[in-house]
Write a structure and sequence with these properties.
Chain lengths: 315, 286, 336
C-alpha cells in the first residue's frame, strides 16, 4: 500500500535533494518487509527483524548501517501506584536487569549500555550514571528483602506486541523473577499499550524515548509536572517533583552551555536517585538499505530518523 | 513353536481389525505419559536460556535445536503439551456434562423447554465454533482457563443434539415403556436405561471432539488468547517461531509437528472406538 | 418446498437478531469499555466522560440495546470506536477479501475432497484407498496455522515463488470498484495486478483447502460406500450400464446430498479458519479486523463483524438447503 510520495523540491534553501522522489509504502508485517528488501523492491527500512541482521550482513546487495545511540530504552515504573511507588522496589528492578544479556539476546547487540535519561550525544551527558544502571542481583534481592513485601511479589510488565519488544519482555521477566518478582507479561497492541500506559493502569512498561530536536530539554520536559498526566510514570507522585520541575525550567532559562551542562547533570542525578525510569540501553538501530543507496546519514536527531535529503543512488 | 501359531494368528486378526486404533491409542497414551512426567523426560529446564547458543540447529545436545533465547526446544516441546492437553480434556468433559444434561432434559421432558433449549443450540451452531470461542475469550479475557471455558461452551450443542436424538429414540423402546409402566421414576429410567445405552455413541463423539478441542486450544494459544508469552506451549511456540521463518525455521517446525501427531493419534483412536462401539458404522472403516 | 423456503427465510432475521443480541450482551457483561482502552495519552477524566457520552456508553444498558437494535434495523452499523471509520466502509474493505479467500478455499477443499473420496471407492485399488484414508485423516489433524507457516517457509522463503503475506503487491496500482479483486482486476484488464493478487491468494487458500479437504474426502468416501452397496446401484449395474455412468450419473447424485449438506458446515469452518489463516498471512480480511476489534474491545467493530459473518454463514446454509431440495427429488414431494 502506498502511504506517501515525496517529490524533490527544486527550490529547497539548502539545495535540491539528490533523489527525485521517495515512495513510502506500508507492509502488513516484518516478514513482508524483509522479503521486499531482499527482492530489491524497497531500498530502505528500519523495520526488518533484528534477528535477520547476521544473514543480511553477508548478503551482497544489502547493507546494514547502524544508527547513532539516540533512543533511550527503559522500563517506566508507575510511581503513583502500588507497588512501584516504593523506591526500594524500583531500585531492585534496576539492579535485577542483566543489561548485557538484554542487549545481546533481546536486541541482537543493537544498543549501548545505558547511564541515564540523557544519552552520550546529549549536552550535559553524565557518564557516572553507568555506575547506577548496573547488574547486581544480590543487591536487588537485598533491596526486595528490605522493602518488607511478601515474596515472590506479583507484578505486571506491559509492552508492545511488535519489533523486539516481546523478546525483550521475556528476558526482562526472567531477570526479575530471578530476584524474587513473580511477573505477568501483558502483551498489547500499540494502541492499547499507549492507552493503558497513559491511563496509569500499568505497573512497569517497556518504553522508549527519542528526541525531536537535538537538545536535552526535549527529553527533560517529559519529567516536568505539566507533562505528568498521561506520562509513562505518573511522576507527579514523586517526592522530587518540585525539584525536577525547577531544573527543567532552569534548563531552558539560559543559553550558557556550561550552566546548562551543570543543570542537566543535576537533573540526571535526580532521575537516578528516584528512578522513575529504569534504563535498559541506548538503541543503535540497524538501518537496512539496498547496496545502491549511498550516504545514509545515521546521525539524525533520533536513531529512527534519517536525513533523506543527503541520500543518493549508485547505479 | 507350534503352540505360538494360533496366538500369532489371533494377534494378526486382532491387528487387522484394530490396527489404526491400537497405533492411535498407544501413541496418545505415550504422549500423555510424556506430558505428565515431562520433568523426568526433558533433558533441560524448558525455561533455561543460553544466550551463547541461540538458534542452534538440531544436534545431539539439542535434539530439536534451540530457540531465540537459546532454550532447548525438545525440553519445551515435552513440557508444551500441558496447557493444551489439560485445556482440551477439561473442555470436553465440561461440554459433555453440560451437553448431555441439556440433551437428556430436552429430549426426555420435551415440550417448550425442549424447543427453547434446541433453538438456543441452533443459534450457537449458526456460528463458526472457533469464532464463537474467540468471542467468548474476548468477553472473559485472555487466559488458559478462559480458553478452556470457551472451547467447552462452543462444543456444548454437539453433545446436546446427539444426546437428545438418542434419548428420543430410546424413550420409545419397549423396555423403557415397560419400566415406566412398572412405576419407575424418571431419574431411575434415565440413569439405568437411557444413560448406559447412550454411552457408546457419546464416547465416540467425545473422542472426536477431543481432537477438535486440541486443535482449537492450540489455535487460540497461537493467536495469543491463551497462555502467557514465554510459556512452553505448542501453539505459543509456533507463534514465536513465525517471526524466525527466515533465520531459524526449525523453531516453529517441531511444536507444530507434535500437535499434528497428537491430533492424529486421537483421531485414529476415535476411529477405532467408533468401529468398535458403533455397530452401524463398523467395517465401513472411513 | 416454497413454504419450507419461506420458513427458512423467516428464521434468518431471527438468527441474526439472536446472534447480534448475544454479542451485544457478551461485550457488555464485563467491565471496561473501548474508550478506556483506545483513548490516547492526552485524554483526561472529563474528556473521557464526554467521549463516553458521545458514544452513549453512559446510558443504561437497556437504552443502549434499544438504540443499537433500532439502528441495526435501519442498516446503520455505526462507526468504529477506535478509528471513527464507518463500519459499513470497513465491511466493504474487509468482507470481499475474506469471501474470496473462503470461496477459493471451499473450491480447493471440495474438489480435492470429493475427487479423492470418489477415487478411493470406485478405483478398486487398496493402495489408493489406503492413501486417501491416511491423507484425509492427516488433513483433519494438521493445525491450520502451522501448515500456513510451513508453506511460507517452503514456497516463500526457500523457493521464493509466493509472497509471505498481504493481499496484493505493495507496488501495485489498481482501481477499487467492488473490492472483489476477481471482478475489479479482470473488469479493468489489470493483469499485472491480477497475477500479483493470485500469487498472494494461493498459499492462504491452499492452507485452508488442504486442511479441510480431509473432512470432505472422508464424508464422500462413506457416502459413496453406502450408495455403491445399495440395491439401486446393483440394479443400474444389472441393466448393463457403463461403470462410469453408474458412478457419475447414479451413485454421485445420491452421494451428493450429504456432501452438499456438509458444504454449509464446511463454509462455517472455513470462515473460522480464515481468522487464523488471515493472521498467519497478515491477510487484510474480516478475520484480522475482527480479532483486532475483539482485542481492542471495539464494540461497533465486533458487532458489525459478527453480524456479517453470521449473515454470510446463514445465507450459505440457506443456499445449501435450496441446492439440496433441487437435487433430491424426494424432497420436492409436497408430503415432505
Amino acid at each position: 500500500m502506498l502511504v506517501a510520495l515525496l517529490v524533490a523540491n527544486d527550490d529547497y534553501w539548502a539545495g535540491r535533494p539528490y533523489v527525485d522522489q521517495i515512495v513510502i509504502r506500508a507492509f502488513p508485517d516484518e516478514a513482508a518487509i524483509l522479503a521486499a528488501l531482499e527482492a530489491g523492491e524497497i531500498d530502505m527500512t528500519l523495520y526488518a527483524p533484528f534477528t535477520s541482521v547476521p544473514r543480511l550482513q553477508s548478503s551482497e546487495n544489502i547493507r546494514v548501517e547502524v544508527g547513532a545511540p539516540l533512543v533511550d530504552l527503559f522500563i517506566g515504573a508507575n510511581v503513583a501506584k502500588e507497588p512501584f511507588d516504593n523506591l526500594l522496589l524500583r531500585q531492585a528492578v534496576n539492579y535485577a536487569l542483566d543489561r548485557e544479556t538484554l542487549i545481546e539476546a533481546g536486541l541482537n547487540g543493537f544498543a549501548e549500555m545505558p547511564a541515564s535519561l540523557l544519552g552520550p550525544l546529549d549536552l550535559g551527558f553524565d557518564e557516572s550514571g553507568r555506575e547506577v544502571s548496573v547488574y547486581d542481583p544480590e543487591r536487588a534481592k537485598a533491596l526486595l528483602a528490605d522493602s518488607g513485601v511478601d515474596l515472590p511479589l506479583a507484578i505486571e510488565v506491559a509492552y508492545e506486541n511488535n519489533r523486539f519488544w516481546p523478546q525483550l519482555a521475556e528476558l526482562v521477566a526472567a531477570d526479575l523473577e530471578a530476584v524474587g518478582f513473580d511477573v505477568t507479561l501483558d502483551r498489547l497492541d500499540a494502541g492499547s499499550f499507549w492507552g493503558k500506559v497513559g491511563d496509569g493502569a500499568t505497573q512497569l512498561s517497556l518504553n522508549q524515548r527519542s528526541t525531536f530536536v537535538p537538545d536535552p530539554h526535549d527529553k527533560a520536559i517529559l519529567m516536568a509536572r505539566a507533562g505528568a498526566e498521561g506520562s509513562q510514570t505518573q511522576h507527579q507522585a514523586l517526592d522530587a517533583v518540585d525539584e525536577i520541575d525547577t531544573l527543567v525550567t532552569a534548563g531552558i532559562s539560559t543559553v550558557d552551555p556550561m550552566e546548562r551542562e551543570a543543570i542537566y547533570q543535576e537533573f540526571q542525578a535526580l532521575m537516578l536517585e528516584h528512578l522513575p525510569y529504569i534504563y535498559i540501553g541506548y538503541l543503535t538501530p540497524p538501518i537496512f538499505v539496498n547496496a545502491r543507496v549511498q550516504n545514509v546519514e545515521t546521525f539524525g536527531t533520533a536513531g529512527g530518523r534519517i536525513n533523506l535529503r543527503e541520500i543518493w543512488l549508485s547505479e | 513353536m507350534q503352540g505360538l501359531i494360533p496366538t500369532s494368528a489371533r494377534i494378526r486378526a486382532f491387528w487387522r481389525r484394530y490396527d489404526i486404533a491400537v497405533v492411535g491409542s498407544v501413541a496418545f497414551a505415550f504422549i500423555l505419559l510424556i506430558t505428565i512426567f515431562a520433568s523426568l523426560v526433558s533433558p533441560y529446564d524448558p525455561m533455561a536460556r543460553n544466550i551463547k547458543n541461540r538458534f542452534a540447529p538440531p544436534s545431539s545436545e539439542n535434539a530439536f535445536g534451540t530457540d531465540q533465547l537459546g532454550r532447548d526446544i525438545f525440553s519445551r516441546v515435552v513440557h508444551g503439551g500441558r496447557p493444551i492437553l489439560s485445556a482440551s480434556f477439561s473442555a470436553v468433559l465440561f461440554s459433555l456434562a453440560a451437553g448431555m444434561t441439556i440433551g437428556v432434559a430436552g429430549g426426555y421432558l420435551g415440550g417448550p423447554l425442549d424447543s427453547a433449549l434446541m433453538r438456543l443450540m441452533d443459534v450457537m451452531l449458526s456460528f463458526p465454533s472457533i469464532l464463537l470461542a474467540i468471542l467468548i475469550v474476548a468477553t472473559l479475557g485472555v487466559g488458559l482457563l478462559n480458553v478452556t471455558i470457551a472451547i467447552g461452551f462452543a462444543m456444548v450443542p454437539v453433545f446436546a443434539r446427539l444426546a437428545r436424538s438418542i434419548v428420543i429414540t430410546l424413550a420409545y423402546e419397549e423396555y423403557v415403556a415397560a419400566a415406566r409402566s412398572l412405576g419407575a421414576s424418571d431419574i431411575h429410567i434415565i440413569w439405568n436405561h437411557i444413560l448406559p445405552n447412550m454411552l457408546p455413541p457419546i464416547i465416540v463423539q467425545a473422542s472426536a471432539m477431543l481432537a477438535v478441542a486440541i486443535g482449537a486450544a492450540s489455535a487460540l494459544n497461537f493467536i495469543g488468547l491463551g497462555v502467557e508469552p514465554g510459556t512452553p506451549d505448542w501453539g505459543m511456540m509456533v507463534a514465536d517461531g513465525q517471526r524466525l521463518i527466515f533465520d531459524a525455521p526449525h523453531v516453529p517446525l517441531f511444536p507444530g509437528l507434535v500437535i499434528t501427531i497428537t491430533v492424529l493419534s486421537v483421531n485414529y483412536m476415535g476411529d477405532g472406538l467408533r468401529d468398535h462401539l458403533d455397530p452401524k458404522l463398523r467395517r465401513q472403516g472411513t | 418446498m416454497l413454504s419450507y423456503m419461506l420458513k427458512r427465510l423467516i428464521w434468518l432475521p431471527v438468527v441474526l437478531w439472536a446472534v447480534s443480541s448475544l454479542t451485544f450482551l457478551a461485550l457488555r457483561i464485563v467491565p471496561g469499555n473501548p474508550i478506556q482502552t483506545v483513548q490516547n495519552q492526552v485524554m483526561d477524566k472529563s474528556q473521557l466522560a464526554q467521549v463516553e457520552a458521545v458514544w452513549g456508553l453512559n446510558r443504561p444498558i437497556i437504552e443502549q440495546y434499544a438504540n443499537f437494535l433500532s439502528k441495526l434495523i435501519r442498516g446503520d452499523l455505526g462507526l468504529a470506536m477506535s478509528s471513527g471509520v464507518p463500519i459499513r466502509r470497513m465491511i466493504f474493505e474487509r468482507m470481499p477479501p475474506t469471501i474470496e479467500l473462503a470461496i477459493v478455499s471451499l473450491i480447493i477443499s471440495t474438489s480435492i475432497g470429493v475427487l479423492s473420496g470418489v477415487a478411493s471407492v470406485t478405483i478398486r485399488n487398496r493402495a489408493i484407498d489406503y492413501s486417501v484414508r491416511t491423507a484425509s485423516i492427516l488433513g483433519l489433524s494438521l493445525p491450520l496455522f502451522w501448515v500456513g507457516i510451513m508453506l511460507i517457509i517452503l514456497f516463500s522463503v526457500n523457493l521464493r515463488w509466493t509472497p509471505t503475506s498481504g493481499r496484493i503487491g505493495a507496488g501495485m496500482d489498481y482501481d477499487v470498484i467492488t473490492n472483489f479483486m476477481f471482478y475489479d482486476l479482470i473488469a479493468t484488464g489489470n493483469w499485472d495486478a491480477f497475477a500479483s493478487f493470485l500469487r498472494h491468494l494461493v498459499l492462504p487458500s491452499v492452507t485452508i483447502g488442504l486442511t479441510s479437504a480431509g473432512f470432505v474426502a472422508r464424508l464422500t468416501r462413506s457416502a459413496m460406500l453406502e450408495v455403491m452397496s445399495s440395491d439401486y446401484i446393483r440394479t443400474a449395474r444389472a441393466k448393463g450400464l457403463y461403470e462410469r455412468s453408474v458412478i457419475w450419473r447414479h451413485a454421485m447424485r445420491n452421494a451428493m446430498l450429504p456432501i452438499i449438506t456438509l458444504q454449509g458446515l464446511q463454509f462455517g469452518a472455513i470462515l473460522g479458519g480464515a481468522v487464523i489463516t488471515e493472521r498467519v498471512f497478515s491477510y487484510p480480511g474480516m478475520g484480522t479486523w475482527l480479532l483486532n476489534g475483539i482485542l481492542e474491545r471495539d464494540y461497533s467493530v465486533v458487532q458489525g463483524g459478527i453480524i456479517f459473518v453470521a449473515l454470510a454463514y446463514v445465507l450459505m446454509n440457506l443456499l445449501v438447503d435450496i441446492l439440496y431440495h433441487v437435487i433430491d427429488p424426494r424432497l420436492r414431494n409436497p408430503s415432505h
